[in-house]
Amino acid sequence: MAASEIRALFAMAARPEVVSLAGGMPHLAALPMDAVADVIGELVRQDGATALQYGSGQGHPVLREQICTVMSLEGIDAHADEVVVTVGSQQALDLVTRVFIDPGDVIIAEAPSYVGALGTFSAYQADVVQVPMDDAGLVPELLRETIASVQASGRRAKFLYTVPNFHNPAGVSLALERRTEILEICRGAGLLVLEDNPYGLLGFDSDPVPALRSQDADNVVYLGSFSKTFAPGFRVGWALAPLGVREKLVLASEAAVLCPPSFSQLAVSRYLETQPWQQQIKVYQELYRERRDALLDALAELMPAGTTWTKPTGGFYVWMTLPAGLNAKAMLPRAITGRVAYVPGTAFYADGSGAPSLRLSYCYPPPSRIREGVRRLADVLAEELDLRRTFGATGTHAQPAGRRALVGTGERGSAYPDAPPESEVGLGLVDSAPGPSGSRQAAGANSDLAGFTVSGEHHE
Amino acid sequence: MSDLGRVVVLAGGLSHEREVSVRSGRQVAEALIAVGVDVELMDADTTLVPSLASERPAVVFPTLHGAAGEDGAIRQVLELLGVPYVGARPAACRIAFDKPCAKAAVSAVGIPTPRSVSLPHTTFRDLGAGRVLDAIVAKLRLPVFVKPARGGSALGASVVRNASELPEAMVACYAYGDTALIEQYVDGVEVAVSVLDTGSGPVALPVVEIAPEHGVYDYRARYSAGATQFHVPARLAPEPAGAATDIAIRAHEALGLRDISRTDLIVDDSGIPWFLEVNVAPGMTETSLLPIAAAAADIDLGVLCRDLLQVAASRPAI
């Protein structure tokens, strides 16, 4: 299925008849809109001449100081001069890529990785090499192997792109004990770290963990955003970068947009100054926790055997892997017909893999809709399993030998316990038939997963 | 200003082809506005019936693609509400939209169409996929074209050249609908012939030849600007071009269609045009075949749509 076909299907996902577990839109109804309106009204009345004027290419100085206060919650000790305000952190991503990447350069990223970053990297013709994660995030030894294999191929990776907290789309976080090691590996390899952290303050269970940047001020470019902690409509994000990088980012940003929007910056600044913004983040945390619970409970109750999923402790996303043989991309039209939408896993891989998995977002629909969405998805899976039982699994779950997957479980066995014997005759279907051969495939694929946490479980 | 009164262009709908329909509707609406017609764009959702009932339009131009839009269902509702519309009536749509039924109907009047079988998923499940697929391949021979029996824009459609690819093609097809059409693949020149009837009998527009950049006229090739080259008139000898035109008009008549249709055909190496399918709500996007054919014939799309609306509006109420 071509990318444009997926776009066409998403035209339906936006309809209210469809339960969309696809989009990553924050639930802005939780914002005190009257207070925000007052903030903006006062801004125009009291400071309109500044707010509606051009501003500094690096961003408004007062906001940059406030951003340092926000970052201090994650252990970052920074000065306002080190911050570059951008049009959402997406622009920061674009600027960093523009500054560092020539066509053909390698960027190392997690597998799966944020689709918006992959789009930017592709626009600059970077060669993205993805490193598998497990339930504790990026796997250090696999990062080492990947760096070595890139070097052995005569190329040099320019930076590691990582979303360490409440990963989009994987829903996992990089374990604290791995953070120092990851930083050391990158430093040793001369690899810059691009730390993208839009969800770090949206944890459900504990205080924010220290950012990678808090441990290494010289080799980490940190990207932050107000899109999830306040509102994405302002398009205010930032980069915190070492001096040499920062100067280039400012020049590149001035060339692109002259300056980030003064109005948005001052609105955010005034909001931070006058409103209980940390309390608002707690409101968001509770809201998203309730939705995460609704999604996980519904999945546990309704998903068929062989389905696995991550259990996020913050952020917006659950990463689900389908029973062996199912293909999330091929299944999407059926899901749209069934009035439920998700993002197929292929969106999060530069090489088109990821078809056995999908991303579910719990941030936007209320809990009752989430449950309804999962019920519909369960029906879709049942129909698709029926179809695969008829025509045979396609082996999309096969992992390259020696590779680990984000999540996986073979314990629940094949999803096709009663494959009809007819599947094994004619047309050379035997190799891809469900039943015994499908089971062998699943077992083979998961034999490298020993010792990994199984974070999604079937209800049995 | 036109004396048609208020016209509603129906676009969107809840089908897989929603995006295409929105583009078709926008293009038709803009073309009509440019020739002075009072146009309102409406979606086919729960707001439609109350909107049409509270302020009845003079006439409706449906540009809904896919199920409901082309299978006659929405048109049936328009008839219930007593609103005139452009295009074929529900019963004709039901047959035309169902590719196996349409093929059988045109075949009955002597129009060649590739041999095919049409089966629901349950048949493969109940009888065993391997055995049924083996029988199909033995009968039709590879390559074959697999596509949903109902639906358009090549969604869920694929060419299968090796038997090992067939199960995956079937799964992809069934993701879009319950019944699959497996058709003998005919190698040749892909063409489309649009048929219009603005009151004096069906007339064909010039034959459009479709030459996708990458050889396959799939969804991307259909709706990405520049992804397909169109040759109008088609680079065919006069005889096959005439035969294709003749088939399109005969199919329009045999299926009992009205006002507008587009027939898709393959002209094989010996010059025989084979009927593939007919569309009762042809795509009207900027890269669609009917607008390209109209432009080649120097017919303004707005004038054309306005003429069709006038014919529809002047029909006696049902």
Structure description:
The complex is a heterodimer of chains A (460) and B (318). Chain A has helices spanning 3-13, 33-51, 61-72, 88-100, 115-123, 140-152, 176-188, 243-257, 262-274, 277-302, 328-337, 367-391, 436-446; strands at 19-20, 83-87, 106-111, 127-134, 137-138, 157-162, 192-196, 220-225, 236-240, 308-309, 317-321, 340-341, 343-344, 357-361. Chain A is α/β, with parallel strands linked by helices and 460 residues long. Mean pLDDT of chain A is 86; it is low at 395-403 and 408-460. Chain A is globular and about 65 Å long. In chain A, the strands form 3 sheets. In chain A, strands 2-9-8-7-6-3-4-5 form an 8-stranded mixed sheet, sandwiched between helices. Chain B is of the alpha+beta class. Chain B is built from 12 helices and 13 strands. In chain B, the strands form 3 sheets. In chain B, strands 8, 9, 10, 11, 12 and 13 form a 6-stranded antiparallel sheet that branches. In chain B, helix 1 packs across helix 12 (301-313) and helix 6 (121-127) packs across helix 7 (129-140). The chains are: A alpha/beta (460), B alpha+beta (318). Chains A and B meet through helix 1, helix 11 and helix 12 of A and helix 1, helix 6, helix 7, helix 8 and helix 9 of B.
Strand content of chain B: 15-25%
The tally of helices of chain B reads: 12
- Main structural class of chain B: alpha+beta
The major pleated sheet of chain A works out as:
8 strands, mixed
SSE order of chain A, as H and E? HEHHEHEHEEHEHEEEHHHEEHEEEHH
Total DSSP E strands of chain B: 13
What low-confidence regions of chain B span 5 or more consecutive residues with pLDDT below 50? Answer: none
| Percent helix range of chain B | 25-40%
Question: How would you characterize the largest beta sheet of chain B?
Answer: 6 strands, antiparallel
Mean pLDDT of chain A: 86
Distance from N terminus to C terminus of chain A (CA atoms, Å) equals: 34 Å
* Strand residues, percent of chain A: 5-15%
